[in-house]
Design a protein that fits this description.
Strand order of the largest sheet: 1-2
Strand content: 5-15%
Low-confidence stretches: none
C-alpha cells in the first residue's frame, strides 16, 4: 500500500505534537534539548500542503511514529517502487503520457497556478491510474535508497538499494514546484 497523498503539514504537526517528530537543538547554557520539530512552511500555509523542509531522518521518524501509532508497519518506498507507483502501469514518462502537458503537475513551466512559486495543496491535480496524487512535481519525496551514480548493480526485485554506496546521500523522487520537468 502507498499513501494516496504526500504527507501534509497537518499530519506532520500531529506527529510533532505527539512527540514522534522531534529534533535535537543545542541551546547555549542548556545543552542538548529535544523539541517537536515544526518545519517552516515558507509562508505558504500548513494544513493540506505537503510538508517541506524535512530531512531523510525526519521522514524516517515520521514513518516510525505512524507505525507505532497505528500498529501497522510503514516505511519509505524504494526508488523503484516510487517509479512503479508513479507510472501506475503505463510505459510512458509520466502516468498521462510522454509530454508534461499543461496543468498535470506543479513544476517550473508546467502550466499550473503554482509553477515555480510555491507548493500546491495535496490532491490539486488528477490522480494517476493507481489513485495516487501528486507523484510528479510539487515536492521531492524521500526514498529508502542510498545514492548511486548509475543503475549498474541495482536490485532487480524493486527493493531499496542500500548496498555498496555512501548512504550519507539519499535518493529523492517526484520533482519539485521549482524545477523544470526534465
Amino acid at each position: 500500500a502507498v499513501g494516496r497523498f504526500s504527507v501534509t503539514f497537518e499530519e506532520w504537526d500531529a506527529c510533532a505534537a505527539d512527540g514522534g517528530c522531534n529534533q535535537m537543538e543545542v541551546l547555549a547554557g542548556l545543552g542538548k534539548v529535544i523539541r517537536p520539530y515544526k518545519p517552516s512552511d515558507e509562508g505558504w500555509g500548513r494544513g493540506r500542503r505537503p510538508v517541506i523542509n524535512v530531512s531523510w531522518d525526519d521522514a524516517k521518524a515520521y514513518v516510525a511514529w505512524l507505525s507505532q501509532k497505528t500498529g501497522k508497519t510503514y516505511r519509505l518506498l524504494s526508488g523503484a517502487e516510487y517509479e512503479y507507483a508513479t507510472r501506475a502501469g503505463t510505459q510512458t514518462a509520466y502516468p498521462w503520457g510522454n509530454a508534461i502537458g499543461t496543468n498535470n503537475a506543479n513544476c517550473h513551466a508546467c502550466g499550473s497556478q503554482w509553477d515555480a512559486r510555491q507548493t500546491a495543496p495535496v490532491g490539486s491535480f488528477p490522480a494517476n491510474g493507481f489513485g495516487l496524487y501528486d507523484m510528479v512535481g510539487n515536492v521531492r519525496e524521500w526514498t529508502e535508497d542510498c545514492y548511486h551514480e548509475r543503475y549498474i548493480g541495482a536490485p532487480a526485485d524493486g527493493s531499496a538499494w542500500i548496498e555498496g554506496a555512501d548512504c550519507s546521500r539519499r535518493v529523492v523522487r517526484s520533482g519539485s514546484w521549482l524545477l523544470a520537468p526534465a
